[in-house]
Amino acid sequence: QTVPEELQNGGGFGYVVAFRPFGTISWMQTVVASPDASRYVFRNESLPPFSPYEVKVGVYNNKGEGSFSPVTVVYSAEEEPTRAPTTVLARSLSASDVEVSWAPPWENQHKGRIQGYEVRCWRHDEKEENAKRIRTVGNQTSTKVSNLRGNALYHLAVRAYNTAGTGPSSAAVNVTTKKPR
């Protein structure tokens, strides 16, 4: 958060951002000269994705440097999931509802974390691009798909997602909704 102007106490106010790979000794520092700045982006293409860094932010003005914030751990950018969920199963609950479940993908967790799953559902006589999409949050590995047509064949597929994007799709599974009463 930026420091309010009344607390900057003099001209030449700015921030010092110090960071280091987690577990190392030496701090790298950079100066952010704008008093309104609320972020700094460190770019380095050789950084492994989702690497932990220790970060602290200090302040300065024309009279010198102030104290630093407590150290916090942040992570470099994630890569989108590279593997699809497995063991996708679907079962008809009624004429309009099906339940789909899956197992999380075997994922290299050093590249990112899964934030949830996207379930796509489309009727056999429809195009996959027009699929109904349901997003889950967290480690939930099943969901209900509602408002479907009775006695109809549906295809369902599941993909994991995170802040970087959506990963590859599982193989589609088929389910036929129950006949309406």
Automatic annotation (TrEMBL):
Keywords: Cell adhesion, Cell membrane, Disulfide bond, Glycoprotein, Lipoprotein, Membrane, Repeat, Signal. PROSITE patterns: FN3 (PS50853). Residues 1-79, 84-180 form the Fibronectin type-III domain. One of its GO terms (molecular function) is cell-cell adhesion mediator activity. InterPro entries: FN3_dom, FN3_sf, Ig-like_fold. GO terms for cellular component: axon; plasma membrane. GO terms for biological process: axon guidance; brain development. Its main location: membrane. The keyword Repeat applies. This is CNTN4 protein.
